[in-house]
Design brief:
Arginase, Chain A, globular, 8 helices, about 20% strand, nine-stranded parallel sheet, alpha/beta, binds manganese (II) ion, about 30% helix
Length: about 325
Amino acid sequence: MSENTYEKGRLNLPFVGFCTFAKSRTCEDWDNIKADVAFMGAPFDCGTQWRSGARMGPRSVREASTLFSFGHGGAYSYEEDTMYLEGVNIVDIGDADMVHTNTEKSHANIEYGVRKMLEAGALPVTVGGDHSVNAPCIRAFEQYANKGPIHIIQIDAHLDFVDERHGVRYGHGNPMRRASEQSYISGMTQLGIRNVSSSNRSDHKLAEEAGSTILSVRDVRRLGVEGVMELIPKDVNYYITIDIDGFDPSIAPGTGTPSHGGFQYYEVMEVLQQVAHQGEVVGIDLCEVAPDYDQSNTTSILAAQVLLNLLGYVFHARAEKARQSS
Ligand SMILES: [Mn+2]
């Protein structure tokens, strides 16, 4: 008889069963979220200025994430001889309710969901949707402004720092500008910014004046991980916002506004791993996965892989810090 306890019960392969984020349990009662990590979809894409379709992102990322659910109580990295996500309790709370044609209401519903995740003490992970959903995510942190300022780490091809055009203040080109207006946002590191973009010269200047460090993909390559980390403030709270178009279209074609010359996988992950260790990650969003343009699902798989590895880094770093301080 096998001694492997994992061979008892169901095999439960990734394509079997309920399709939640990483096949985690669901929680429909948002007043009773008991978890280390809460995952919420924000399927809003009315903020796009070109191709829509990111409203289907949360479903697609959930499905892709099942591929990484076939673990053995965690994820072992041979390269680092580290067991990630062991004992980390993840819950999928479903999606914020969307009201078609109504940005204000849809965003308010996203903000409500993030507030509920924060009230429960869970790390909120919100998957868009277009990048406009970052604005209500950041607003939800207002209640925690007394816990110290938050530094935003943005992975994106675009600066997203437009103030207002034709009265639009909450499209997917505005979120970093809106974040910069919050008193509890102390600054940003904006990584991957390149090419013909949504923001003009004056937006870049205003971002720098608001405390941003803006680095292109080639800047990041020139500096290397250590050089980039020297430009990011230490021992602060971080909110990580990932626009999937920060990655190169060759590995992330499934997005509304792909931009060539983007990041490869480890260029981003090595920075995020260091970020997790040099401060406290208090929230995450990942946006702009549009599965209709994603013929092999590789973009959704990338998104799921980025999120699960990032969560592994965050909770491993928290455990290390707890061990060192005890
Ligand atoms: Mn963006």
